[in-house]
Design goal:
Chain lengths: 365, 336
């Protein structure tokens, strides 16, 4: 007698036992998070180490620069050197490895140290004062240009070959080719000097002096007024790229079979546009957006200097000019952290938007 | 087969606007499709069979226009509508609930970022079917096409094999109980065993649910197996149309005969395979007279001057050939 139970051929083959989705999600996220955080920490450490030595390879050091400045005022070298050495809590003769270990040790205690050229000012306080303005201006510029680019690019793909499409494609290509600092200069020269649309001097800084910070109409208006030029620059400089990418991506998506099938199924145009066309066409742009977010912090150096906008980019430029090592290190640390974090964000968003990638991660674990 | 025609196509012509001029992809095509009938459209690539299929539900690419004709569709309540005169909103509601379609590229016909269930719900809500009913019906159809219903319903397309996706598409085409399902080479993208199982499933579904099918294929064996009637297309025209056994065993058009002789048969040796000389005609400047005459071994002066009409030779067997009797005699000889 056979002990093997007879199985009816019509019985469906049982699937492998599947754990409830939330358990699977938690396990996957946990393993994934640990890996991603470790990777991120290693990246940040590598970048800080690299920049630590790189900025010390620049000709001169804070003391040398200060001595130069003092000597130009007619002070003899010996006196200038003594003054400069006394001014800064920085010893250029200390060996590099010692400096590096001290820096790492402080970093582990989340201590970024004091600014070398502004004695008594903590680097962390400088960053806290300047970072919000950069985040606000570059961030809103990025979001505005992304939203504008996606909308216009989709519309151009829908009406490709029309006058609207041809004109905007030309404009977008031109804008795409102009660097942001040229746009900033054009705005200043044409708008401020030739047409006199605004007083350049009044627009320096992030707010009008003498207005108390707070949620008052006056303060917000002043903030917006000062951010208008930098934000316009960022929008004009990046919207071309978004438009062109979104247009070509949408055209490619419109040719996909599943769009034809969706139309044949009698779906409303709006549903096809959102869930079928835009959702798929935006996939390649999401990665770009997340990576751009990472460069928000560092991507504004020259523009902020041109508009005298008190952001992190402008203070980075000043720190470089005076060889303020600690401030530079602090700002580079912020930049590298934001790049790493935004790449993580890109991964997460892609996984959320594209199920094919989501599954790939599950399999690798 | 019931007598009531569910679709009456009359003098439909479709052309594409190309750089060189107008391409007449479908010219002056007329046929009836009856309730429960499966019609196979056969012919070479570029003969207009896929264009005709897409034109029937007005899903042609933007550079194509339907120049003339009418497509009369009989609703279940007996009301007759001309598909070509439907307004956009009416057409949207007509699609899939009356005539649905199974597309060629099974691998890419499902939106990669949506679950199968979303596709089902999207289709249902576009036509006012409640979600619960849509789900119940989808699960039933998935079981009928031999899929694991619950698993497939919650799957993303990339989690399914090519054959499974093709069966999902087949099931979804029947979601709204259409009277007609158009199929464009539904088995070409899958391997021979999957093809077998899809054809089995299709035949079973057709017997159970009683819908009509227009089946575009260049695979004569598949057409012979599944079709009730066959229409041969050449250069945008139907040149022969009749019951499957008549057309395949007693072809009366020289082109159908050539097609059959070009297809391998189990009963015959390989040496009998004969390719058709030449290539399909230029549809911007088609040859005068019968469009097949440059490639036809029966061609005479009459064929070069006068285009033959599609006329009835025996019950339900239409043919457009000046030498149909000769062709019939030859085909009896060859296939005896």
């Amino acid at each position: 007698m056979s002990t093997v139970p007879a199985q009816s051929p019509t019985t469906p083959v049982p699937m492998a036992v599947i754990k409830p989705w939330h358990t699977r999600l938690r396990e996957r996220l946990f393993g994934y998070a640990i890996r991603v955080i470790l990777q991120g920490l290693i990246t940040v450490w590598a970048v800080t180490t690299f920049t630590f030595f790189l900025i010390r390879l620049m000709p001169g050091n804070p003391v040398d620069i200060k001595i130069d400045q003092l000597m130009q005022q007619g002070i003899p070298y010996e006196i200038a050197r003594n003054q400069a050495m006394g001014l800064f809590a920085f010893n250029p003769d200390e060996p590099l490895p010692v400096q590096y270990l001290a820096y790492l040790g402080n970093l582990l205690r989340f201590d970024l140290g004091n600014s070398i050229t502004n004695p008594g000012v903590r680097v962390i306080d400088q960053i806290a004062a300047f970072l919000p303005w950069t985040l606000f201006s570059v961030g809103s510029g990025l979001l505005i240009s992304f939203a504008l680019g996606v909308t216009l690019g989709t519309a151009m793909a829908y009406w490709r070959g029309s006058v609207f499409d041809n004109v905007l494609t030309a404009i977008a290509s031109i804008l795409y080719g102009i660097p942001d600092y040229i746009i900033a200069l054009l705005l200043l020269i044409v708008g401020g000097v030739q047409l006199r649309l605004f007083q350049i001097g009044e627009l320096r800084g992030a707010v009008d002096p003498g207005i108390a910070p707070g949620l008052t109409l006056e303060y917000i208006g002043s903030v917006l007024k000062h951010a208008l030029l930098p934000v316009s620059t960022y929008v004009l400089a990046s919207v071309g790229g978004w438009i062109l990418t979104m247009k070509s991506s949408t055209i490619a998506t419109l040719g996909e079979d599943y769009i034809a099938v969706a139309k044949a199924r009698g779906l409303p145009e709006r549903r096809i546009l959102t869930a079928y066309v835009a959702r798929n066409a935006m996939l390649p742009l999401v990665t770009r957006l997340a990576i751009s977010i990472g460069f928000v912090v560092g991507g504004s150096v020259i523009v902020e200097e041109l508009f005298q906008y008190p952001g992190l980019g402008r203070s980075l430029l000043r720190a470089i000019n005076s060889r303020d090592y600690t401030t530079m290190q602090g700002i580079f640390l912020v930049i590298s952290i934001s790049v790493v974090v935004s790449n993580m964000l890109a991964d997460l968003m892609m996984g959320w938007l594209d199920p094919r990638i989501r599954l790939g991660k599950g399999h690798r674990d | 087969m019931a007598e009531r025609p569910v679709l009456q196509v009359r003098n439909v012509s479709i052309s594409y606007l190309a750089r060189r001029g107008r391409v007449r992809a479908v010219s002056d095509v007329s046929f009836d499709l009856h309730e429960g009938e499966t019609l196979a459209l056969i012919g070479e690539s570029g003969c207009g069979k896929s264009t005709l299929n897409l034109g029937l539900i007005r899903q042609l690419p933007a550079n194509a226009t339907i120049d003339s004709g009418s497509i009369l569709y009989t609703r279940r309540d007996g009301q007759i509508v001309d598909v070509l005169k439907l307004r956009p909103q009416e057409l949207r509601r007509f699609l899939w609930s009356e005539v649905s379609m199974v597309f060629q590229g099974a691998l890419n016909a499902l939106n990669p970022v949506l679950r199968v269930s979303d596709v089902v719900y999207d289709t249902a809500s576009a036509h006012g079917m409640p979600r619960a009913e849509a789900k119940r019906r989808a699960l039933d159809l998935f079981a009928r096409v031999r899929l694991d219903p619950e698993r497939v319903f919650n799957a993303y397309p990339h989690e399914l094999s090519g054959g499974m996706r093709q069966r999902v598409l087949l099931a979804i085409s029947l979601l709204l109980r259409p009277q007609i399902v158009l199929m464009d080479e539904p088995t070409t993208a899958v391997d021979i065993l999957t093809q077998r199982s899809i054809l089995d499933v299709l035949e079973k579904l057709r017997d159970e649910l009683n819908f009509s099918v227009i089946f575009v294929s260049h695979d004569l064996a598949v057409a012979a197996e599944i079709a009730d009637t066959v229409a041969t297309m050449y250069a945008g025209k139907i040149v022969e149309h009749g019951p499957v056994n008549d057309v395949f065993y007693r072809p009366r058009h020289a082109y159908t005969l050539s097609l059959l002789n070009a297809a391998p048969r189990l009963s015959a040796g390989a040496e009998e395979l004969a390719s058709i000389p030449g290539s399909p005609p230029d549809l911007i400047q088609p040859p005068p007279g019968c469009k097949f005459h440059p490639r036809c071994r029966f061609a005479s002066d009459l064929c070069r001057d006068k285009e033959p009409e599609l006329v009835s030779k025996e019950a339900g067997h239409l043919v457009a050939c000046h030498h149909s009797d000769e062709v019939l005699a030859t085909s009896r000889e060859v296939r005896a």
